[in-house]
Amino acid sequence: MKYVMLVSHGEFAQGLRNAVCMLAGADRDDVIAVGLKNGMGSNDFAEELKKQIPEMKEEDELILFADIVGGSPLTTTANVIAELGILNQTTMIGGMNLPMVLTTVMSKDFMDLDEVLKDAMEGGIEQIRPFEVAGDDDDEEDL
C-alpha cells in the first residue's frame, strides 16, 4: 500500500487531510495527518508520529508531505522514519498544498511514484497564481 502522510505546524495537516478526503469522496485510512501543536516539544511530537505511522510491510511506501522544508515537523518525522527503519520506503517533500496532495492521493495507486510526484509538484505550482475577477464594466455599457 502507498500511504500519504501530512505533517505541519499547528492544525494545517489535519485541515488539509479533511479537505482532501472531502474532495476524494471518502474518509481515507491511507492519508495520515499529524500536527505539531503549539507548546508541544519534539519528543512529544515524535511519540505522536510513532502512533500514527502505519506498520509498514516491505512492499509498502510512504509519501510524506510537510509544510516547510527544514521545519521541526519534517526534521522530526525524518528522524522517526529513520529510527523505524523505513527511510528507504519513504519519499519526503517539503512544502505542500491542496492540489499537490489531492493529485497524489487520487493517482498513487495506479501510476508510477515518480510520475505521481512529478504531476503533483507541477500541479501544485500551477495553482499558485493571481486570481482575477472579470469586471462588470462591459455589461453596463450594453444597457
What descriptors fit this protein?
143 residues; alpha/beta; Rossmann fold; 4-stranded parallel β-sheet; 4 strands
Topology at a glance:
Blueprint: E1 2-9, H1 12-24, E2 31-36, H2 42-52, E3 61-66, H3 72-84, E4 90-94, H4 98-107, H5 113-126, H6 137-141
Parallel strand pairs: 1-2, 1-3, 3-4
Helix pairs in contact: 1-4, 2-3, 4-5
Describe this structure in words.
The chain is of the alpha/beta class. The protein has a domain at 2-96: 3-Layer(aba) Sandwich (Rossmann fold). The chain is built from six helices and four strands. It has helices spanning 12-24, 42-52, 72-84, 98-107, 113-126, 137-141, and strands spanning 2-9, 31-36, 61-66, 90-94. It has a four-stranded parallel beta sheet with strand order 2-1-3-4, with helices on both faces. α1 links the parallel β1 and β2 (31-36). The radius of gyration is 18 Å and the shape is globular. The N and C termini lie far apart (60 Å). The mean pLDDT is 92.
Compact description:
With about 140 residues, this protein is of the alpha/beta class.
According to CATH, what is the topology of the domain at 2-96? Rossmann fold
| Through-space gap between termini | 60 Å
Report Rg. Answer: 18 Å
Shape: globular
Looking at CATH, the homologous superfamily of the domain at 2-96 is Phosphotransferase system, mannose-type IIA component
Q: Counting H and I runs of at least 4 residues, what is the number of helices? A: 6
The succession of helices and strands, N to C, reads EHEHEHEHHH
- Please bin the fraction of helical residues: 40-55%
Helix and strand composition category = alpha/beta
**What is the makeup of the main sheet?**
4 strands, parallel
CATH architecture classification of the domain at 2-96: 3-Layer(aba) Sandwich
Spans of at least 5 consecutive residues with low confidence: none
Strand content: 15-25%
Please provide the count of β strands.
Answer: 4
CATH class of the domain at 2-96: Alpha Beta
Please give the order of strands in the largest beta sheet. Answer: 2-1-3-4
Overall pLDDT metric: 92
